[in-house]
Structures are given as C-alpha cells and as structure tokens.
Design goal:
It is built from 16 helices and no strands. By secondary structure, it is mainly alpha-helical. It has one domain. The radius of gyration is 19 Å and the shape is globular. It starts with a helix and ends in a 7-residue tail after the last helix.
C-alpha cells in the first residue's frame, strides 16, 4: 500500500502536470541555480528524484537541454525528493485516513477531478501504507532473518549501504525504502547509526534506474546519469567518517526516532547538493573527463 500510494501520486501528477513540467525544465534552467530550484520543485511535486532524472536524461538526449544545465536539475532533484520522507513524519491515524481515502477515490471518478483525485488517493494511501507496515512488523514470520540482516548492518557500514542499495532498487524509490526504515525505527528494531548507513545506500540505489536508461543514450545523457551517481557517492564518502557527529546533531532536532531518520535523509541530500554547487564547473569537467565525447572519424 505504501508503494502503490507513492506510485499513484506520481501517476496523478504526471497526468496533471507532465507537459508543463517538460516545458519548465526546457525553458527555466538556463543557469545552474535556476536548474537547482526547478529540479527541487519538480522532484517535490513528483515525489521522485528518479522520475526527474529520467526526464532530464530524455531532454538532454533530444538536445533540448545542455549537459551543464541538466546537472543543475539533478542537484535540485536530490533535494526535492526529501519532501516525501518529511511528509511521512506526519502522524495520521488509519481510522481517519480510510474515510478520506474513500472520498478521494470517489473524486477520481469524474473526468474533471480525476487527476487530482489520483494524487490525493496516492497521498492518503502512502500514509495508510506506512501505518499498516508499522503495525505488521511485529508479527512478521521472518523477523529473525530481518533482525540478523540489521545486525550485520550495525557491525559493518558496507553491509548497511549494500542493504540500502538493494532495497531502493527493489522498491524503485528511495523514499519508500527510507519509509521502511522509519517503520523499523518506530518498532525500535534499528538504531540511528545503522539507519544512516542504509540511507547512504538508499541514495546510491536511487540512481540505478538512470544508469540503466542512459546505457543506450547519447554521451550527454550518460554524463547526466553518471553525475547523479557520483553526486551521491561523493556524499557518502563525505558523510561516512562524520556519521557519529551527524547522528548526534540530527538527534537534537527531534526526540521522535522516525523523524530523526527523515531529518538525516534530508540533511544528507541537501548538504551533498549544496557542497557541489560552488564547484559545479569543476564537477561537470570531471564528468566530461570520465565520459569523453565520441570522436567523429
């Protein structure tokens, strides 16, 4: 239900705003700063950095957008994707959600309000899914296996990062993977340091769809996909030795454990993107060196 909610939000917003978003990405990103602002807004609306990355790759492939302008959108998308996780920190009881969910489904029937209805249905399904996931964790038949995997992540950061990559790839959403972490935290099945390692993996895993799509795309599109991966890998390398300090800092923002995970996810994405911004020219040059232009013979 959690995953279906996230994907339904995307579907409703795609039908509602798809053409406007493509036009916005093409015309309002002539500077890196504007690209970041547009990328942030687009990822927040679509609840997915992956969706925005794939649109950016398509526009770069079609030469509607330059690689450097597309790079600004990627940085912004990394920030905007945090909105889903922050929404999930809101505590809404299931018994109140279900009546509203039924109303939103009814709103989806008339043609005029269909896309808005889809979006609201997805939003409420997402909240309901997280609540049901939290309730169901305690009675999982394979709880021992889950606890064993978590214990591996506690003792080794690499295991945590790998678990995050795999979870995000399977869910096709870093927000959904982080929401699962928040549900585990609500049941006291995980500590903040382990959650931080998995958050690192979630962010790297969110880039894999872009890499797959760009495999047969032109050089500029491959560069956009690589920049998404490299941005998150550099973020992990920066945060990894500072995990203890960052978790202590994050714990001061809120006493609610799931909210701490959401905040850590947000801090990671925002800091990673903003630190690259002053060095955007050098960063883009590095990408161009790693993926050189094809020679015309």
């Amino acid at each position: 239900m959690l995953l279906s909610g996230i994907f339904t939000i995307r579907y409703g917003l795609k039908l509602l705003l798809w053409k406007k978003l493509q036009l916005l990405l093409r015309t309002a990103t002539n500077t890196p700063l504007r690209g970041i602002l547009v990328g942030t807004a687009a990822a927040a609306l679509f609840q997915s950095s992956t969706a925005v990355s794939l649109i950016t790759i398509s526009l770069v492939s079609a030469e509607y957008l330059s690689f450097r302008n597309g790079l600004g959108i990627i940085l912004g998308a990394n920030i905007g994707t945090c909105s889903t996780v922050q929404l999930l920190t809101l505590s809404l009881p299931v018994e109140y959600l279900i009546p509203f969910l039924v109303l939103c489904l009814l709103l989806s029937i008339p043609k005029r309000s269909r896309y808005v209805g889809f979006t609201l249905t997805g939003l409420l399904s997402m909240f309901s899914g997280l609540s049901l996931l939290t309730l169901g964790l305690g009675s999982l038949p394979d709880m021992d296996t889950l606890l064993y995997v978590i214990s591996l992540a506690e003792t080794n950061a690499f295991h945590g990062i790998t678990a995050g990559i795999l979870t995000t790839f399977l869910c096709q959403s870093s927000s959904a993977a982080t929401a699962i972490l928040m549900a585990l935290a609500d049941e006291d099945l995980i500590n903040l340091t382990t959650a931080a390692y998995i958050v690192y993996g979630n962010n790297i895993g969110s880039c894999l769809s872009s890499v797959v799509v760009s495999a047969v795309a032109p050089t500029a599109a491959k560069r956009v996909a690589l920049s998404h991966v490299l941005l998150n890998v550099l973020g992990v390398l920066l945060f990894l030795p500072l995990t203890g300090i960052m978790t202590t800092l994050t714990a001061r923002f809120s006493s609610d454990f799931p909210s701490q995970i959401a905040m850590y996810h947000t801090l990671f994405n925002v800091i990673s993107s903003l630190l690259v911004l002053p060095f955007l020219r050098q960063f883009s040059r590095l990408i161009e060196i790693l993926i050189p232009a094809k020679k015309n013979w």
